[in-house]
Write a structure and sequence with these properties.
Elements: H1 5-17, H2 19-29, H3 32-35, H4 37-153, H5 156-159, E1 164-169, H6 175-182, H7 188-195, E2 199-205, E3 212-220, E4 223-224, H8 226-240, E5 246-252, E6 254-255, H9 257-266, E7 269-272, E8 275-278
Length: about 280
């Protein structure tokens, strides 16, 4: 016979009237797993609680990490700002370096111009030095020539204390000199030295019975040194070899001390400008 709706209603009334039948029917109808659901629910609730606690702990950790991240972000921002300032400073330094390099280039160009100018000045100075040397030599020659002319034109003004009636002669005026040269009595060096004699004078020296004519073989120099003294002595000796009464003499504006001593040793007469001393 088929189970109708009325039968189902009667069954529900019986189960409600007899709870023990209901529980028995539940055990029959429901499987063991379903019966274990309450226990599983408790386990699940416990797990949920533990998970909630873990989530809470995790939330605290996340919050701590978030705070740390905030601090990290703040630090990163500070570092970013510092980096910006560093980059700005580096740009300033780069610009300063560019300006420095530009200034150094200007200075290098200025140095080149200075060096070129110094080279020009050095060249001009060298030319001036050479010109001064030439002029100094010319002036020395002119001074020497002027002084020699003074001695030649007015020898009595320099030798007046010991000589009178002095007059200038030429080497060609001495016949024995030319004859000696013709006979080969002079070496080429001696002949050259004799012809380079600055001034040959003839005058009178001494008084009374000691009065005599005497030649003066004179070397003239603005400042008399030992070479002048020795040249005068040498050239006077060449003439004395031929029998001429000759005395060596030097004339100038000043005489060095060693030359003065040498003149005294060789008996060379010294005449200085308008005064004279016999040594």
């Amino acid at each position: 016979m088929a189970f109708s709706v009325n039968d189902f209603k009667d069954l529900l009334q019986l189960l409600n009237s007899n709870p023990q039948w209901r529980d028995e029917l539940r055990r029959v109808i429901l499987a063991e797993d379903y019966l274990a659901l309450p226990e599983a629910a408790q386990v699940l609730m416990k797990a949920q609680k533990e998970m909630a606690e873990a989530i809470a702990a995790l939330s605290l950790e996340v919050k701590a990490l978030a705070e740390a991240q905030k601090r990290t972000d703040a630090r990163l921002e500070e570092l970013a700002e510092a980096q910006k300032r560093t980059e700005a400073r580096l740009e300033e330094l780069a610009e300063a370096q560019k300006r420095t390099e530009a200034r150094l280039e200007e200075l290098a160009e200025a140095q080149k111009r200075t060096e070129a100018r110094l080279e020009e000045l050095a060249k001009a100075l060298a030319e001036l030095v050479e010109l001064v040397k030439v002029h100094s030599k010319d002036i020395a020659m002119l001074k020497g020539f002027t002084l020699e002319q003074r001695f030649r034109l007015n020898p009595n003004a320099f030798f007046w204390r010991e000589y009178r009636k002095l007059r200038a002669l030429q080497l060609a005026d001495l016949d024995r000199v030319d004859d000696a040269y013709a006979r080969g009595e002079f070496s080429p060096e001696e002949w050259k030295a004799l012809n380079k004699l600055d001034l040959l004078l003839l005058g009178v020296t001494g008084k009374g019975e000691s009065r005599r004519e005497e030649y003066l073989a004179v070397e003239i120099s603005w400042v008399i040194d030992t070479h002048d003294v020795e040249r005068a002595h040498q050239r006077a000796e060449l003439l004395r070899r031929l029998g001429y009464p000759v005395r060596a003499a030097v004339g100038g504006t000043n005489i060095l001390d060693d030359a003065k001593l040498r003149a005294s040793a060789l008996g060379v007469f010294v005449a200085l400008n308008d005064s004279e001393d016999e040594l």
